[in-house]
Amino acid sequence: MHVVNNSFGMYCAEALQRMYSYPPPHFQGGSWGYYTPYLWFDGHKGTTSYGTWQTRIVTRLAQSAPVTITMWGDWWPLQGTGTVYAQFRNDSTATLNGRAIFVVTEDSIYTQYLAGDPWHNHVARDYLPNQNGETVSIPAGDSLTISQTFALQPNWNPEMIEFVAWLQDLNMNPSDSTIEIWQGAILDIAELGVEEYGNNDIAASHIAPIPNPCVSGTRFAFTLPAGDAYRITFYDVSGREVKTMHGISSGNEETVTWNLNNEQGTRVSAGVYLYRFESTEIKTTGKVVVQ
């Protein structure tokens, strides 16, 4: 993929920064630099020859992994937004301290202006929440579920979207420049649950926390049919539940305020928190920034 400028419609600043987080693989003119396309594989400085890539990748796929990843999600086609989930299960006998990374990719992008094959697949469109991912610690035999919200851009083809997640070591092996990826998984957008709204539904985009970012608290204002149960659940960036608020709608406008305390009554730390609003008619997700 072409990540160094936006001339061909495939530029992603996060992908560029992600590439720069690894040592430069290409030696030319007496110094190391970055060059695309290039295969940096298991710490080897690889080659630009496509013909050698497949055998090495297939061999790697045959090796056993200490992690199992299960992915699922839901989305709202009319809005182009949704949530993707990944459960990382540690099948090893030791705690894994790593980084969970999510990326939205698009297949079958065609451009005749680049040398070589004009079709481009698995082009990085967006990292969730960014190219650094989330640091996690998973004890042996345990699992951790992480959710990330996404928003598709109008110039992306939603039928060609895939979500990729992987769990990667935090440390680089100094002997071969490897930052080990323990396991990865891919989820096609067609595998996500589709949420649709009835004629009497409120647009989910209208249900959002105000203010956001917030310092002392944030509130949700909405109107649901009388007797409709609702629930608002907040999660930290690792996917752990922080606070849940619920009630029954009176049929009038409801205002629900989160005072930024967790279930134990302690104020949460500054950072990004995810929320999920659920009722009979509406399901929506988003982020709250606590300052």
Describe what you observe in this structure:
It comes from candidate division WOR_3 bacterium SM23_42. 6% of the residues lie in helices and 43% in strands. It is mostly beta strands. It has 2 domains: 130 residues, Immunoglobulin-like, CATH 2.60.40; 87 residues, Immunoglobulin-like (Sandwich), CATH 2.60.40.4070. The longest helix is centred in the first third of the chain and has 9 residues. It is globular, with a radius of gyration of 22 Å. About 3% of the residues have low confidence.
Concise description?
This is FlgD Ig-like domain-containing protein. The chain has two helices and 19 strands.
Topology, pairings included?
Elements: H1 13-20, E1 26-28, E2 31-33, H2 53-61, E3 67-76, E4 81-90, E5 96-106, E6 109-110, E7 119-120, E8 123-128, E9 134-138, E10 143-151, E11 161-169, E12 181-188, E13 193-194, E14 218-223, E15 229-235, E16 241-248, E17 253-258, E18 271-279, E19 283-290
Parallel strand pairs: 3-13
Antiparallel strand pairs: 1-2, 3-4, 4-10, 5-8, 5-9, 5-11, 6-7, 11-12, 14-17, 15-16, 15-18, 18-19
